[in-house]
């Protein structure tokens, strides 16, 4: 048992260390990028040629812009030759993080710059659409669908984005008011490819189960 706890502690420590390092790198890269941007403006006015190059922390900063919705800095990273489809240690791209966070402006920017829309992460096999729908981001979901995202691609649990959203709506801890909006939207958009509603072992559809859960909650007078 002690070996399990030691192993778990080691994993958590490594993860926290990675997050801390990414944050530090992102901060340093942000300062560097601002300086480089000013130098580029000077080069334009003086007629000098300014070369773009990689710099430490650029990718960490790029992911942070996707999480925070900082489209301006994301654009600067792309102008400095940041690979739009570079992945982190979980196989997630900036598009995954933008969809997960509901950063619609950054999401649109990444799509315009050729981001791989159906790329799956290595953790759970999730696409950007899986993330946007699961976390209840209506606009991000619509943006991805309108851009041609696959609505039938399966994750590692053999669930498409619609099914994953239905699963989320079953859990009171993760359910969002927007989940039913997304479910309805995806069902309409999938047309002939739509999958039957998920059912629990008692045969209740997702919608009926959510309604039953809502009725069991304390009601306001």
Structure description:
The chain has 221 residues and is mainly alpha-helical. The chain is globular and about 50 Å long. Residues 3-17, 35-52 and 216-221 have low confidence and may be disordered. The protein has 2 domains: 1-83, no CATH class; 94-193 and 205-215, Ankyrin repeat-containing domain (Serine Threonine Protein Phosphatase 5, Tetratricopeptide repeat, Alpha Horseshoe). It contains 10 helices and no strands. The chain has helices spanning 2-46, 58-68, 71-79, 94-101, 104-112, 128-134, 138-146, 161-170, 179-190, 206-216.
Q: What is shown here, in short?
A:
The chain is mostly helical and 221 residues long. The protein has helices spanning 2-46, 58-68, 71-79, 94-101, 104-112, 128-134, 138-146, 161-170, 179-190, 206-216. The chain folds into two domains: 1-83, no CATH class; 94-193 and 205-215, Ankyrin repeat-containing domain (Serine Threonine Protein Phosphatase 5, Tetratricopeptide repeat).
């Amino acid at each position: 048992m002690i070996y399990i706890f030691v192993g778990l502690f080691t994993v958590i420590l490594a993860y926290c260390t990675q997050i801390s390092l990414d944050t530090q790198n992102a901060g340093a890269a942000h300062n560097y990028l601002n300086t480089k941007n000013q130098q580029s403006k000077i080069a334009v006015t003086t007629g000098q040629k300014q070369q773009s190059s990689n710099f430490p922390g650029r990718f960490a900063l790029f992911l942070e812009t996707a999480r925070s919705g900082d489209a301006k800095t994301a654009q600067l990273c792309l102008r400095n030759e940041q690979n739009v489809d570079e992945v982190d240690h979980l196989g997630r791209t900036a598009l995954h993080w933008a969809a997960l966070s509901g950063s619609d402006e950054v999401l649109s920017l990444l799509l315009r710059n050729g981001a791989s829309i159906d790329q799956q992460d290595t953790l759970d096999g999730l696409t950007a659409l899986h993330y946007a729908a699961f976390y209840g981001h209506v606009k991000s979901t619509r943006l991805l669908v309108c851009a041609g995202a696959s609505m039938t691609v399966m994750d590692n649990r053999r669930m498409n984005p619609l099914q994953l959203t239905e699963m989320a709506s079953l859990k009171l801890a993760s359910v969002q008011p927007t989940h039913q909006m997304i479910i309805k939207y995806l069902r309409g958009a999938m047309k002939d490819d739509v999958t039957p509603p998920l059912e629990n072992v008692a045969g209740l559809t997702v919608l009926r189960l959510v309604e039953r859960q809502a009725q069991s909650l304390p009601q306001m007078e």
